[in-house]
TrEMBL record:
GO biological process: riboflavin biosynthetic process
Any one GO MF annotation of this record: 5-amino-6-(5-phosphoribosylamino)uracil reductase activity
Protein species of origin: Saccharothrix syringae
InterPro entries in alphabetical order: DHFR-like_dom_sf, RibDG_C, Riboflavin_Biosynth_HTPR
Protein name: Dihydrofolate reductase
Domain annotation Bacterial bifunctional deaminase-reductase C-terminal: ranges: 4-179
Pfam families named among the record's database cross-references: RibD_C
Length: 188
């Protein structure tokens, strides 16, 4: 069975974006970015992969799931991750390229995807979708940036059940960014 991984940048106070959905205050230079390029090339959008000359095979994920707001970030691409199967959860989105599938039931979609063979499923964002999918999230990979937003889009938004995770690994970079991986507790 495949795993659903919430792989996301977050501020020290638990926000994945500012109140308008922007994430420009996160750090995009430094040793943590080198690690990201090398270890998670599958999480880079096509535009970034092309600009950086990255043509690496997918290491962790072959599928990405994102909310409508994450998919439609300003300046976003109509098919941001053509190297992955792309799903957007939305009841309002009406047109996407053929390689981007719009779904309305995220839980059913994730459960069906988990039953298929393949690499992992990347939950790209946002906070409301993460809260809705919390029962199905197997792993959290948090890229914690040394910034405090004070307000914005939380890591998990809305009502959701308590879930326990166990720290699997932590890696600290000179930039102050910390990658921490948590695995869902088996009895959670």
């Amino acid at each position: 069975m495949r795993n659903l991984t919430y792989f996301i940048a977050t501020s020290l106070d638990g926000f994945i974006a500012d109140p308008k959905g922007g994430f420009g205050d996160f750090l995009f230079e430094g040793d943590h970015m080198t690690a990201l390029f090398e270890e998670y090339p599958d999480t880079l959008p096509a535009q970034g992969r092309q600009a950086l000359g990255i043509d690496a095979p997918n290491k962790h994920f072959d599928t990405v799931l994102m909310g409508r707001a994450t998919y439609q970030v300003p300046g976003g691409l109509p098919s941001p991750y053509p190297h992955l199967r792309q799903y957007v959860v939305s009841t309002r989105l009406t047109s996407t390229p053929p390689d981007v599938e719009v779904v309305t039931d995220p839980l059913a979609t994730v459960r069906a995807l988990k039953s298929e063979p393949g690499l992992g499923i990347w939950l790209c964002g946002g906070g409301r979708l993460a809260a809705a999918l919390l029962p199905e999230i197997d792993e959290l990979v948090l890229k914690i940036h040394p910034i405090v937003f004070g307000k914005g889009i939380p890591l998990f938004a809305g009502e959701f059940p308590t879930a326990r995770f166990t720290k699997a690994s932590t890696r600290t970079f000179d930039t102050g960014v910390v990658f921490t991986t948590y695995a869902k507790e088996e009895n959670a």
